Give the backbone structure.
Amino acid sequence: MHKIKIPPKNTDSSLKILKATFKDHYTYEGQMIQKYGDIYRFKLFNKTCYSISHPDHMKHVLLDNMQNYIRPREGSFSQKAFIEYCGNPNNLRHTTDQQYWKKSGDAVIPPFFSKERFQGYCSAIAESVLKMTAKWETNIKAGEPVNIKEEMLKLGSRAIMENLFDLKDFDFDRFYMEKTRVFAQIGKRGVLPSFLHWLLPSQDKKDWQEGNTYLHHFTESIINQRIGRQNTHKDIICCLIEAFKDAPNKEQMLANFNSEFRMYLVTGETLGAGLNHALAILSGHSSVEDKVHDELARVLKGNIPEYDSLNTLSYLGCFIKEALRFCTPAPLLTRITLKDDEISGYHVPKDTLIFLRHYWNHRHPDFWDNPERFIPERFKDKPWGQDHEYAYTPFSGGPRACIGGRFGMHFYTVVLATLLQKYRFKLLPGASAVPEGVAISFPKDADRMIVLRRG
């Protein structure tokens, strides 16, 4: 009979943990991992939490025993923010019920992530990039910075709305403004316990309430327009409606659809964050930039990328993978245990809140050589950059991995191939590209960058 181990405990107070998390959770978490190891436990008020950052532990939660690790439920720590944004997590049945996940995934993945669809997405995304950069000319000529963070976030949102959802005839500027109000609050509310939300400033509360109300009415109007509509070609909206057609009533169908739709909006946010990181990183690595540009010039010869050319941009692909490792747009994921479990011999009690630290998983010294160095070549001959599949989890992992991961890789390739043929991006003097943000990560000082035309 083997002896069950208990992970080491971080004895910092809940308030100290929260304060450090809001200030700079990357530095704090790095210190805790160095002190306590790959798996440790801590308390957030009355909630038992585990932090894990080892690939084997990631695999256990995301694949081997995934049925025991679900999204935090209603009434659990800080779950109020998720429910207010996305609805009851039970509506996200494809993320908590394996059979339903397969049904929903089968309804969406084949038609919208096929080669034929990607061919259309490529030209549409490249066209969006060209329209965006045309508006930069005044800033470029004057040597004034461009708000790259906002531009990339808009680009990511448009990619989701116009390509995956086939939504073009709507007030995008109003939609983006309200979505931005909501996402500005998610990081705060997702970390802060529900019973402390009253401490947030009144403007934060107003932005959260009004933004969520707008998004609810927006999604309701979409589904009302699409129910019963005959479509010559389906989009993801119609496929999700089909997947939810067995709901007991229209109200439940609306709730299910609203939850799923809101999660796709998160994808648009992470797409923009990934681009912001990539451009900031490139600014500080001139030799990498030269290699990317040489490949683009040789392969594309000044033309916009087409689907068939994407796989020939091998170095750009390595650069994108390394950027996603180096500064992961979604640095952590949370799950909660349904039953007692063991992870590598460590006891995990029922109802434990699990923090999967993707950012630090991507820096584990047992799996990554020189993890703090930016080395695209590590992905040249290895799809995961090293030998353990679960040491590289930018889109999470297992059957419940991000459904848009493949779309995201193609999106990054098309956007960067279009941008980097014509422009160089430079951080402002004194700025750094270190990551910040808890729920979604952005480069700290790279919201505005200098854009230079290539000579």
